[in-house]
From TrEMBL:
Highest taxon of source: Archaea
Record family assignment: Belongs to the eIF-2B alpha/beta/delta subunits family.
PANTHER family (alphabetical): METHYLTHIORIBOSE-1-PHOSPHATE ISOMERASE, TRANSLATION INITIATION FACTOR EIF-2B SUBUNIT FAMILY PROTEIN (AFU_ORTHOLOGUE AFUA_2G14290)
Domain Nudix hydrolase stretches: 5-133
PROSITE patterns on file: NUDIX
UniProt-listed InterPro entries: IF-2B-related (IPR000649), IF_2B-like_C (IPR042529), NagB/RpiA_transferase-like (IPR037171), NUDIX_hydrolase-like_dom_sf (IPR015797), NUDIX_hydrolase_dom (IPR000086)
Pfam family for this entry, one: IF-2B
Name of the protein described by the UniProt record: NUDIX domain-containing protein
Length: 430
């Protein structure tokens, strides 16, 4: 502590496949030797710049290998000796090179911090909580796709269940019924945060249904969500691998889908045309990522209005898109522009595939389409109305197939998947 107050330090949590990196501090560390922590160091300068330096020095990961997710509010720990600035980054891989301040690295579920599986530096769980996903962060996220957000929702449920388990161990146990009621309410709020995203609803329902069968308490929810997270990652990976088999030559895509991005990496096409995907223009980031990740593939970024023109003139072989939701009749709900691209592709005889894990199949016929802020389209003073739909519905007959973890599924087979998923909704009826 300085005369002016606590010492500022940064702590970075690197996340990969829903686990975070923790490091065992060595005898060479300046403090808390033999305890587990995140990537940390004194914030001698601007914390935002310092945390990047610490990631490079302590894990040997460059800026290109990590994506900043969130910076949390600082918190004071150890009798207000330290002011911790917490950060969360997504890491593209788990290969880290440790410096002399650490003896060991481990990728763990954050709940292990709360439940005391390891002796940690003071305030580590509190620091994580300030950057962890929340119901609100999921509700307002206009950049990431449905699969990404569904896993974040499972993490919210997992983290709260883990904390309840830890609190029960500390004070002798909570009432199981109270734990269940709290977690069931949280599950409902997560589902309502993005009602248009069937995959979020299905994955949360699957986790709660598993816990309903196993005991209806925090421990059951924790075990079930950990299993659901692993299953979700595996399903998305298999769907991407299957879609890679449909990718070749020249491919056109739009919006931001992590599953599509993985399929394009694995498929290694000759050229990828990427629509800007206004109004958020997430296509620009997708184009940059593909250019870095698939160096042998040429990438063309273009306006949304040019999609039909390029399909007619650029010898596109395949249109590959994600899907926020697959309706029981085989239609898909996805970022606005998908419908127009599919119709234009059908006119030119270009096959259109939507890649989506089967959890994205909706159990409902109704369509809930989200809209963006009018100001992103027009913020002038003229008395005009603004339409800014962020999702549209693509007819089933404009799709060649839907690529899931089980392979290519035709529209007539989707209803059977929806019926299976309806079984997981029954936990809320009891």
């Amino acid at each position: 502590m300085t005369d002016d107050g606590p010492t500022d330090v940064v702590t970075a949590f690197l996340r990969n496949r829903s686990e975070v990196l923790v490091l065992l501090r060595s005898e060479n560390a300046g403090s808390f030797r033999g305890q587990w922590g995140g990537i940390s160091g004194d914030a001698e300068d601007d914390p935002d710049e310092q945390v990047r330096r610490e990631i490079r020095e302590e894990a040997d990961l460059s800026t290109d290998e990590t994506d900043a997710v969130r910076a949390g509010r600082p918190l004071t720990v150890e009798s207000e000796r330290w002011r911790v600035h917490p950060y969360l980054f997504d890491a593209g891989n788990r290969e880290v090179e440790l410096g002399e301040e650490h003896d060991e690295a481990a990728w763990v579920s954050p709940t292990g911090i709360a439940t005391g599986d390891r002796e940690t530096v003071p305030g580590l769980w509190n620091a994580y909580e300030r950057v962890a996903p929340t119901v609100r962060s999921i509700a307002v996220d206009g950049t990431h796709g449905a699969a990404f957000l569904s896993i974040r929702a499972l993490e919210v449920l997992r983290d709260r269940a883990g904390l309840l388990v830890a609190e029960g161990s500390d004070d002798g146990g909570n009432e199981a019924s109270e734990e269940w009621d709290e977690l069931a309410s949280l599950a409902d709020r997560l589902i309502e945060a993005r009602p248009s995203m069937a995959v979020l609803r299905n994955r949360v329902n699957r986790a709660m249904a598993g816990a309903d069968d196993d005991g209806q308490d925090a421990s059951a929810v924790l075990d079930s969500t950990l299993e659901a997270i692993d299953r979700a990652h595996a399903a998305d990976d298999r769907a991407a691998d299957n879609a890679a088999g449909e990718v070749g030559g020249r491919v056109l895509t739009l919006s931001r889908s992590g599953t599509v991005r993985r399929a394009l990496r694995a498929g290694d096409p000759d050229r990828v045309f990427v629509a800007e995907s206004r109004p958020a223009c997430e296509g620009r980031a997708v184009a940059e990522e593909l250019a870095a990740e698939v160096p042998g593939t040429a990438v063309t970024l273009h306006t949304d209005a040019a999609v039909a023109h390029l399909l007619a003139r650029a010898d596109v072989d395949t249109v590959l898109v994600g899907a926020d939701t697959v309706l029981p009749d085989g239609r898909i709900v996805n970022k606005t522009g998908t419908r127009g691209a599919a119709i234009a592709a059908a006119r030119e005889g270009v096959p259109v595939y939507a890649v989506a894990a089967s959890d994205k199949v909706s159990t409902r016929e109704a369509v809930n389409l989200e809209s963006g802020s009018p100001e992103t389209v027009y913020d002038g003073e003229a008395p005009i109305d603004v339409a800014n739909p962020t999702f549209d519905v693509t007819p089933a007959d404009c799709l060649t197939g839907i690529v899931t973890e089980a392979g290519v599924v035709e529209s007539g087979e989707i209803e059977a998947v929806a019926e299976e998923l309806r079984e997981y909704e029954r936990w809320a009826e009891r």
